[in-house]
Structure formats: C-alpha cells, structure tokens
Write a structure and sequence with these properties.
The complex is a heterotrimer of chains A (about 325), B (about 325) and C (about 290). Chain A has about 325 residues and is α/β, with parallel strands linked by helices. Chain A is about 25% helix and about 20% strand. An eight-stranded mixed sheet of chain A has the order 6-7-8-3-9-10-12-11, with helices on both faces. A four-stranded antiparallel sheet of chain A has the order 2-1-4-5. Classes of the chains: A alpha/beta (about 325), B alpha/beta (about 325), C mainly alpha (about 290).
Chain lengths: ~325, ~325, ~290
Amino acid sequence: MSLLELRDVEVVYQRGDGTPVPAVAGASLDVNAGEIVGLVGETGCGKSSLAKAAVGLVPVTRGTITFEGQPVHLLGRRARPVSERRLQLVFQNPYESINPRRTVGAQVADAFAIGRTLARSNWRPRVEDLLRRVGLPATVAGRFPHQLSGGQRQRIAIARALATDPAMIVLDEPLSALDASVQAQVANLLVELARDLKVGMLLISHDLAIVRHVAHRTAVMYLGVIVETAPTADLWKAPMHPYTQALIDAIPHADGAGHLPAAVPGEIPDPARPPSGCRFHPRCPRVMDRCLSEVPELVAKDGGRRVACWLHEIPMAGPWAADVTRVSP
Amino acid sequence: MNALLSVHDLRVWIDTARGPLTIVDGVSFDIPAGRVFGLAGESGSGKTMTALALLGLLPAGGRTGGSAILDGRDLLTMRSAQRRRTRGREVAMVFQDPTSSLHPMLTIERQLTEHLRYQLGMSRKEADKRAAELLTEVRIPDPEAALRGYPHQFSGGMRQRIQIAIALACEPRLLVADEPTTALDVTVQAGILRLLHRLCQEKDLAVMLITHDLGVLSALADTVTVMYAGRVVESGPTVQVMARSRHPYTRGLVDSLPHPEAGDRALVPIAGDPAGPEDRPPGCAFHPRCRYMEPSCATTVPPLIRIDDGREMACPVDPLIASLVR
Amino acid sequence: MIAVTAYSNPLSSTWRRIPGAWRQPLAVVGFGIAAAWVLIALLAPWISPYDPLAQSSALYQAPSAAHLMGTDELGRDVLSRVLWGARVSIPLAMLLVALAFTIGGTLGGLAGYLGGWVDELVMRSADFVFAVPTILLAMAVVAALGPGLFHAVLAVVLVSWPGHARVVRGLVRTTMQSEYVAVGRLLGSPTHRALTVDVLPNIAGPVIVLAALEIGNAILLLSALSFLGLGARPPAAEWGSMVSTGAEHFEAWWMGDFPGLAIVSVVLAFNLLGDSLRDAFDPKAMIKARGA
C-alpha cells in the first residue's frame, strides 16, 4: 500500500452560471515514501484541483484519497486532524502563500506553535536548522517576505512544510513563478530533500522538461484524466500515449538549431463538455474508430507503466502485448 | 548591411523618490530587415524596458538616452504626433498576457479595424474585409463569426493570435514581441511559434523577440543578444550563443535549464538571484554569482568586445580557457 | 494563542514604512494641523483669552486687537468660542468613530468570518442604512430622540457603523481566502487562530485608514446636525451652531466664517492624514516589483 493513494478521484466545480465542471474526472495515482512523482498537464487538465483535493482543501465528489492508510478529510471549520498534518501542500505563488505582515521565521515556526510539538525554547534553533536545510542562511528568520526574492520565498514555503516533519508533500507548480536560473536551484533542493528525508512528493507542473530532472515517475494528465504513468526515463525514451508524445514534441530545443516544435491541432476542449470516448480523440494523430465511443481505462503494462489508450489495448495476450510503438509526429 | 533598426547606447532611467534608477545601461544592437532578433534575459535584465523605450511606452518618470534609428529617424526623440504614426504603421508590439492586452468590452472587429481606419483611413467595409483576411492569416477558424465575438470567448492561444493580427493590421516592418508565449501551454506555444515563423518569411517582417526562454529563441531567432542587469553580456548568431556560449551567465543559463536534447544530464543552477535595477553590484553585475570571478570583476565594468564575426561578449575571463586551467 | 516568537511583531513591518510616508509634504501638513487642533482642544481652557460663555456689551465687534476674531450677538469672544469648540467637536468625533468602528467592525468581522445568515442579517441592515440619505437619517434619529449633543452623537454612530462593517467584512472575507491562511489551516491551525494571526494584522492598515478618514466625516456630520439645530444647544460653543447663528448675521461675517474655517481645516487635516496613512499601509509598496 502506498503512502498516498488516489483512487478514481472526481472533483467537480460549479461555474458562475451553475454548470458543473468536472475538473478531475476519475484519476488514480500512487506516491511512495522517498519518491517524487511528477504530474504534468496543460491548462484545464485538472492537476491543480487534484493537488488541492489530495490534501483536503477541496471536496471530492467521488473516489477516495488515502494517506498512510487513512482517508483524508475535507478541511472544514475544525482544525485539521493531527494524523493528516504530515501531508502538506506547497503553493505555486510564493508572493501570495506567505503572510506579508509576519516575519518568515515566525511563519516557519507555526507548525511548532500549532502542534505544540516542541518546547518554546527550542523553536529558534529548529527554525534556523530548517532554514539551513532549504539552503537559506539562519539570519533570514527575522526578515519579512518583501525583503526576499521569489526563490527565497519558495524555500521558506518548503521550510514551513518541513516543520511538520512531513511524510508527503504535494507541490502545486512550485517552480513556475521563479526565474529561469533559480528554478534549477529549487528543483535540485527538492531532489535532495526527497532523498535525505525520505519524504514523498507529488510535484504538479506544466513543464514536462523540468519534471524530467526531478521526478522518479511521471504521470501525464489530459482534461481531467490521467492518460499515462511511467518511470520518467521510460516515459521519455518511449512514450506510449499519443498525447505524451505530442507534449514531448512540442517542447522547444535550446541548441540554437532553429528546430520548430510540433503543434497539436485543435484546442483543449471545455472540461464541462468533454469529447465522447477517449477525450483526446479529436486531436489525436492515431485515432481509430474505437476511440470515439469507448473510454480507454488506465491499464498496467510491463515495467511499472500504465496507459489509457486503445492503441495499446490488445484484445488477447500475445507477442504484441508489450509492443510500445512510438507515435510519429 | 543596412539594418532596419539600429539601436546605439540605449539607456533608460526611471525617476524615483531616491533619485534616478538606471534600468538599461547602454545597450546596442542592430535588427536587419526580415530577420528575427532575439533579446534574452530574466527579470531585472531590462529587456522589457528596452522594448517599451523603442515604442515610447515608458511609464511616467522614464527617460531615455542614446539613439534608436529606424529608417533615418530616431524613435527616442520623435514628437508625439510622429510617434503615433510610427506605432502601428512601422513598429507594432505584442504583449505577454493576451487577457489584459485586448479590450474586454469591444468586439474583435472593433479592435482590429480601429487601426485600419485610423492609420490607413479605410472605410468600414474595406476595414472589415481586411480584418477577416487578417484573421485567416493567423489561422482563426470562421473569421466572420470571430469578428463579432469578444475576447473572453476565445482561448489564450486564440487571443494571442488575435493580438498578432491586430499588430500586423497596418503591415509594420518590425514586430516587437514581449514574452509572446510565456503564458501559454507548450502545445499552444508551438502553434504560435510556427505562426510567427511563417509570417516572418511570407511578409519579410522583422521581429524583435524578447523572452527568457532559450528554447523559444532557439526556434525562431537568427541572432540573440543576452542581457543581464541592464547590459549586454553576449550577442551573436543563435547557434553560437546557445551551443557555444562564452559568457559565464549565458553558459550558466544554458546549463541550468532543462531541455529535451540535453537528456538526463543534471541541472547546474546559477547560485544567487538575478540582480534587479535596485541592487546592481558594482563592476560586472554578474560577478557575485560567477564561477570564474576574479578580483577585477568587482571593480571594472567589462567592455563588450568582438570575439568573432558578428559575435560580442563582455567578460575578460574567458571561461573556455579558465576551465582548462583549473 | 498567537505564536509570538522571538521574531514576530505583526505590525512592525507596517510601522517601519511610516517614516517614508512622512516625506510627503501633504502628509506632514495634515498631521500638523490635526495635531495642532488636538492640542488646542486639550489646552483651550488655558489658551483662550476669554470665557467662551462670558457675554459683554461689545456686540458684533469686527476683528480687532482685543478680539482677534471679533464678537458675536451676545458680545462673546469668537476666538475663545472657536478654541473651546474644538473641545466639543474633536473628542466627540473620536468617541463617535471609536463606537462606530467597534460596533461596525465587530459586526462586519462576524459577518465575514461566519457567513451564512449572520452575514445576510448584518449586510441587509447595513443596506437599509445606506439606502437612506445620511443626513436625513441622522436628522430623523435625533428628531425621534430629542435634540441634544448626546443624541446627535448616537445618530451619527447609527449612520456610520455600516461603512465600517462593510469594509471589515470585505477585508475579512478576502483575507480568509488567501493562500497563507490555507497554509496555516493545512498546518493544523484552527480558524480562530487564522483570524488572529493572519487576518487581523492584514486588515489593521485599511481599517485604521478608514477610521482616520471617518473622523473628518464625523465632525462634519455633527456640525451639520448642530447647524440645523438638532445637536448642540445654545449657549454651548460648538462650531456648527456658531455657523448657523453666523448665517443669520451676514454683515458680521466673522461670526460664521471663523468657525466654518475651523471645520474646514480639521476635516481637511484628518482627510490628508487618512490618505497618507493609506499610502503608507499600501501592501503593493512593500512587494518589490520584478520584471523589466
């Protein structure tokens, strides 16, 4: 059993005019201790909603979320159960997720103050310890957020989560708001923390390229469903789902060779009115008749991989079952 | 070779309560007609202010120095009437966020035809026809219906295409694009990059592409100028600057960014944070973060020197040699 | 329990910005005039040349060396009455704002925090007050209770609390939805702690600004009610009623103009003070704008 288990999760929002929007339409995912799982997708795929649902910030209309074997509760008026405090979330925008009117040291110490896990006299050394752990000097503790850069603030947000001695951290686009040269710093930090502290991480991102350098496993999401999961290296070497291939092909190369990335025809549909059958079928270069009417399930393949695509569903077991033909652009 | 736009020693200051703040500190470059010129830099580099200065769109309290000659006229010292005629007719701009650069309460038709009727004096019928043509060029499906629509009815990628159509309405010679794809999904970005590429070739349009994304520059730009803290640190043909970078900042940037062709090689970050206009270190602005720093770097601003045909670089310590020695 | 560690001081980041705001000349002017009037209110018994109620035979005297602001219809020194008027208007206005702020702020805070029917009740009551023109409502209240300064104060409190309530409610609601409150909740913070630690320090600024601006408003309303004869009764030295009497004696311009100028200067001062405080508390000024 995994540390964090999401099974057939559905998250539905109400739009302004009352139409229900299924941001997440049945997603399943596992994250283990010390493992970084990257969840990648574009606008409207529901990855942010899934992240918030995973920690109990938004309600789940169907499916289950389990942390350390126990179901995760929706955060209401009451304080969050102690058992769930080892499941934390780091937000995308370090300018909004830190209180501008309190020192960063006080905010990192919040976990101790709230949980009463540490004697008051030990707060300061422990805060400085945490700051060092995320690569910041201890002197930063007395500063206010506006005196720090975006990269430093994001580290504070991570330190704040670490103060609960977490077993699992969900990070919602932690690198997107950072400068290009700073992203690598924080990305490397996450890898270090997962390795040293055995913390599991669910890393949400729209940037498949940077997830490659951080995640052990990668899951690809499209319009509310997970279409493929695989160990990261395998995903890049031999993507199985045509959307994964399209994402990889759309990434520009920085070698100066003038390579124009490949575009995907069409637009991402409205999540409130998804296409029938396989949700990607209107834009898929390998679409078959089956894809228009039957919804492919996320099926396990060799090597710890899963994919939801009729190209890989062979009606009977046979020599073709392990065929992972690359889809040409 | 006659450049379409020749910028020489451009400086931009903002007047603040604490005195003038230098944002752009002596930047020079040439943009040839019909080619794509890339301006690379992170936040605090001054790249956006450079573009705004060229178009006369600096915020209140902004002042410029140096020159920017377009067809014999200096964009920086133009009078406002002449500037109004130049904007849109000769130089147009596309911004990062298509949500805020399109008027939410006007139809697409209004926004597209406004320039055509004001700048070119077209009649309503002529302008509408041309507007539909423009939408077809940027591959908006069903242009007639699209004209009657409002911005919020379109996706981010579509809005960016519309913004490009508006910019190209009066057939300018130079298009300035400030982070045109940063706010878009990667698959949508690919479409916009292809569109820009096609438009460049078909219309002999020069593009000034401003972005921090080296991949985007790599796809479109013929030449790249890299800015850091208001100054140029390296410039030259794109393939040279990306694949064989000489300045420590450029090298650091290339090494710290994940790109598909780089495979599984580890990301090597640049230590510290990008310097903004308020906290610019003395001497070479990059020296506190630089692996190859020498004592002189903290006191003297390194001059931009020619290292090759069409290549310039502002670092006295050549990393190629330094890394061999160490 | 607020986690006050060795480092934290919820308002200190804001207070540090105030010195910067003082460099604005208008802020200094506003603060100066307001401070001067407060001092006058405190020191009036000692600095006014005459007893404000002392009548004399020198009626309708134009300003002169003996009476710098002239005398009124009963021979009383206008200057002394203006100075003593400050003792009426300013403390009352401050008391008034404090009351409106406490009542309105608490109701608004509860509305924003609890939502639901509490929110509906408070906001609809506020809407009712907003729907009626302020001065008319105040007049109606005073008419019902009977004229007098105390009743005038009650009336102004009644018409002022909804403004405070609405602002506080909005601020509480917005702040409760901010990401740092969510972070606190995820760490296990109960909602009441989120309120004290995260919400209150962030709403203190705008709320203080509103209070400062409201003092000016309160003085204006009180004076207006007295002008209409519904507030202070003669022979009390109150600016509004002095202006009213002065209006009946136009040739003796000093009787109405000086109290009128006093009102103008105090209201202006507190408005300037409020505006400069608002600039000082502006959180955007605190966030370094990046991206060039």
